[in-house]
Amino acid sequence: MLDRINALAAEISALTASSAAEVEELRIKYLSKKGLVSALFNDFRTVPADQKREIGQAINDLKNLATDKINALRDALSCADSCDDTLDLTRSAAPIPLGTRHPLSIVREEIIDIFRRLGFTIAEGPEIEDDWHVFSALNFAEDHPARDMQDTFFINRMPDVLLRTHTSSVQARVMEHSEPPIRIICPGRVYRNEAISARAHCFFHQVEALYVDKNVTFADLRQTLLYFAREMFGPDTQIRLRPSYFPFTEPSAEMDISCDLCGGKGCSFCKGTGWVEILGCGMVDPNVLEACGIDSKVYTGFALGMGVERITNLKYRVKDLRMFSENDVRFLEEFTAAH
Ligand code: DAH
């Protein structure tokens, strides 16, 4: 009996059909009440008790094989039949959902593009840094509060290995290894040991710019800033420079732009002043040039640094910094049209 079952299995596996009618014939031949497979079930009664288990299993397998085969033949034919007359080649394809670029990437690229038009090239440096490039080379005094554990994530002490707190570290690295003229833009992620809230995060993004050459003056810095502000925020944008302090620049300034929400009249966004703060800048301190092996009697330079989150907030009015790192698709989808 097993031989008969095996022979039938081979026969069924090899079946072919070229029309629905042929498939129906095959179904009747093998699977109908009087079909060849059903006949085996009848004969099963005469199988000796000790073989019933094995043979019963084989007959069941054969029935499944036949059912699957006939269904497969039918499916193959019904597709071929219907394809001929129902395939609508003019129908639009199923939409492919497009991803969105992250708002911070959109704004970072925009900043880079503006500086690229002025001849700046991109420079990058490591996020895991040493004390020299983040602080010492940039003229931070040994006891400067920014070195404090509260601001800086230290990975190791003595020698100090830390997460960079600003992209100004890339200035130091580039100046150490290149000759002026240097005209670079350094985008990157930075880390500070801050409690996470709507207005502060333990990591964020900056873009730093550095220009070192003979005869670079504060007027060059101011003109570069004005160009940047107008390209970024519109041609009517005004800028103002307020004196400030950074260890690595002298003189130092902070730049504000006219508030584009109220047109400078004063509103809740600019806290009634008509101005919003955008970035820090200044003339590279001669100590920094010397620490990085550049002759400060021959060369001068300017530097500036800005937070990408801050610029993005100004452009898109994102109220909560945490939105940038939560990867909530509903938030990200709002920027689909922005690139
Ligand atoms: N590194 C400063 C910060 O993280 C930003 C900055 C200020 C960069 C002035 C500069 C600069 O290059 O000249 O707050």
Keywords:
alpha+beta; 10 strands; 339 residues; binds 3,4-dihydroxyphenylalanine; seven-stranded mixed β-sheet; three-stranded antiparallel β-sheet
Q: What this model shows, in words?
A:
This protein has 339 residues and is of the alpha+beta class. The chain has helices at 2-13, 20-31, 36-43, 52-86, 103-117, 131-134, 168-177, 218-233, 286-291, 308-316, 323-326, 329-332; strands at 121-122, 128-130, 154-156, 161-163, 182-191, 203-213, 239-246, 249-258, 275-284, 300-307. The strands form 2 sheets. It has a 7-stranded mixed sheet, with helices on both faces. Strands 2-4-3 form a 3-stranded antiparallel sheet. The structure holds 3,4-dihydroxyphenylalanine. 3,4-dihydroxyphenylalanine (DAH) is lined by residues 166, 168, 208, 246, 249, 280-282, 303-305. 3,4-dihydroxyphenylalanine (DAH) binds at residues 166, 168, 208, 246, 249, 280-282, 303-305.
Brief rundown of the structure:
It is built from twelve helices and ten strands. The chain is α+β, with helices and mostly antiparallel strands and 339 residues long.
- Spatial strand arrangement across the major sheet: 1-5-6-10-9-8-7
Structural class based on helices, strands and sheet pairing = alpha+beta
User: End-to-end span in angstroms?
Assistant: 72 Å
Portion in helices: 25-40%
What ligands can be seen in this structure? Answer: 3,4-dihydroxyphenylalanine
What's the story with the biggest beta sheet? 7 strands, mixed
From the alpha carbons, calculate the radius of gyration and give it in angstroms. 37 Å
- Taken as a percent bin, the fraction of beta residues is 15-25%
Task: Report the uncertain regions.
Answer: none
Count all strands and give the number: 10
> Secondary-structure element sequence?
HHHHHEEHEEHEEHEEEHEHHH
The averaged pLDDT comes out at: 90
What's the number of helices?
Answer: 12
Taken from the alpha-carbon principal axes, the silhouette is elongated
